Amino acid sequence: MSSANDCAVFVRERESHGLVRVAAVCPELKLGDVEANVALMVEAVRGVVLEQGARVVVLPELGLTGYTCGDLFYQKALLDAAMRGLSLVADATAGWPALVMVGLPWVVRDRLYNVAAVLAGGRVVGVVPKTFLPNTNEFYERRWFSPAGTVVDEMVSWDGEMVPFGTDLLFEVEDVAGLRVGVEICEDLWAVVPPSSAAALAGATVLVNLSASDEVLGKARYRRELVAQQSARCLAAYVYAGAGAGESSTDVVYPGHCLVAENGVVLAESERFGFGATAAVADVDLQWLGHDRLHATSFRDDETVAVFRTVKVCLGAVRGDGKLMREVAARPFVPGTKGDRRAVCEEIFAIQSTGLARRLMAARAKSAVIGLSGGLDSTLALLVMLKGLERAGLPRSMALAVTMPGFGTSGRTRSNAEKLAEALGVTLRTVPIGAAVKQHFADIGHPEGLHDVVFENAQARERTQVLMDLANQTGGLVVGTGDLSESALGWCTFNGDHMSMYHVNAGVPKTLVRYLIEWCAEELYAKEAGAVLFDIAATPISPELLPLDAEGGIEQKTEDVVGPYELHDFFLYHLVRHGSSRKKILFLARQAFAGTEHERVIERWLEVFLRRFATQQFKRSVMPDGPKVGSVALSPRGDWRMPSDWMGSVG
């Protein structure tokens, strides 16, 4: 961003799309020194609010005094100092546009509670006591504190005014759409039924935890998974701030572990065991969470919704740095780290091949017939088909690959089809379609030189007819090759390559098809067909339905016509998986593809995608069976039901 004004515009746009910045902060701590802790706390909060634009800031459990004060919690001097310290933090943050959660001990009716005080606009707007108090091994909180179940008063006095007190508080930020915060403290998360579950059912989209969890071997991983799982179970963001190394005393060590998770995914995580201030800061997507809650019947139908008191606050405008603090993957269907590659690819192959094996066995098929073009989709379908035969306990000799050269078939793709079949030991039949298509043109009175949609689709339908008849001839099934991206765009010939007896690639988008083939070239089929698979992966995508150029090269390149599949797969993921609007998809795409060749053409191809997606539903409504592979699928029998004659905008 070039100026403060540009940054402000970006922040407003970001929040308009439901992207809200949250922070888990672990300041440096001086155990028992409240005055010093106030200064350290305010400085740490200042950075994430005024410089980075956080709307929600979570600090550790009992952070004003320190968690390990022991019997010093009985001392009136420490308790009074904590209340004065809270007033100082409230005054210091008065003009800051954020909710700040501060941990301290709080006396009510001669009982001491471990609480989170929620600050906004220089005031304490609510106080939430801890529900579950650990009292085993190194923990003995019941020695000093009372659990939330003993609370009698719903309001408590602070600085001359009455403030809501209890575990039934929901903090709603009126000027940030969708931001509703539920609070719990440390052990609450580890309980059989965490209080945050009730808060989520009552409408909380961001759950926060002020914690003092000490570290032992293996606990960090468990804690991380616990936070992620609670965010997934509650369809919420979860912000966890753990006490740091300054808390370490006597027999225990505290790591300062801070986490931000969203619907099962850890977005940000701090380093552990540092003595200075640490933080985990991320932009959580409240619109995505709302979309998933609308979809989740188990969430909507839960009858255990508790009654919460809503505390409404306004925070005012926030400043920011003009950056998005979360990863927006340019290829959301493709695993981000190579370490996951084998496991992911093996899982996808298992899903695809098991579905096909089941169909082959149920149909008592004597053959599996596939059109092999030498392109990406038919190559992946063939590899899956071989795995399917293996899973079904059927011989590879049942596989029949058919190459059907036409007017646009290039030497490269035909050669690759032949090499691949030979390398894999698959029977290959060659059935040229040129003469049959020309006869068809003569029958319907279509000029051979008119290279229109009739010219192209006649070839696709002739190929499908050949495959279907060969399947009948051999007592088999036709295995389809079209992928998820083509279904989204309607980039298939109705009753042509659109049809098969089982569509193994129906749930696999184009970017993932290429990824799978490259993996097969490197690992699964490296010895048998590695070289030819790499060449197939590098071949331009084309239906090869138009005549070749003068040099025999491919004249018709799909991505020149419909646009880059990398962009279309991005659009598809965000439209279907998250229900994102056109404006939001455009916003996210500009983050994901910044500095790439796609950046300047995003808007153009987004319009093409949305138009084609809306108008091509009639093809998806009659698509053949095929296995669902990921969270995005377009089967009319499963994930996507849409009127074929939709006249509105899908974005």
What does it look like?
With 651 residues, this protein is α/β, with parallel strands linked by helices. The chain has two domains: 4-313, Carbon-nitrogen hydrolase (Nitrilase/N-carbamoyl-D-aminoacid amidohydrolase), CATH 3.60.110.10; 338-558, HUPs (Rossmann fold), CATH 3.40.50.620. The protein is built from 21 helices and 20 strands. The strands form four sheets. The chain has a seven-stranded mixed beta sheet. A six-stranded mixed beta sheet has the order 5-4-3-2-1-14. Strands 18-17-16-19-20 form a five-stranded parallel beta sheet. The longest helix is centred in the middle third of the chain and has 23 residues, at 341-363. The mean pLDDT is 93.
* Strand order across the largest sheet: 13-12-11-10-9-8-15
Q: Give the C-alpha Rg.
A: 30 Å
Residue windows where pLDDT falls under 50 for at least 5 positions: none
How far the N terminus sits from the C terminus, by CA atoms, comes to: 27 Å
CATH architecture of the largest domain, by name, is 4-Layer Sandwich
Give me the CATH fold name of the largest domain. Answer: Nitrilase/N-carbamoyl-D-aminoacid amidohydrolase
Shape: elongated
Mean pLDDT: 93
Computed structural class: alpha/beta
Quick one: CATH class of the largest domain?
Answer: Alpha Beta
Beta-strand portion reads: 15-25%
| Major sheet size, sense and barrel closure | 7 strands, mixed
Number of strands: 20
Number of domains: 2
CATH superfamily of the largest domain: Carbon-nitrogen hydrolase
Instruction: State the helical fraction.
Output: 25-40%
Tally the helices: what do you get?
A: 21
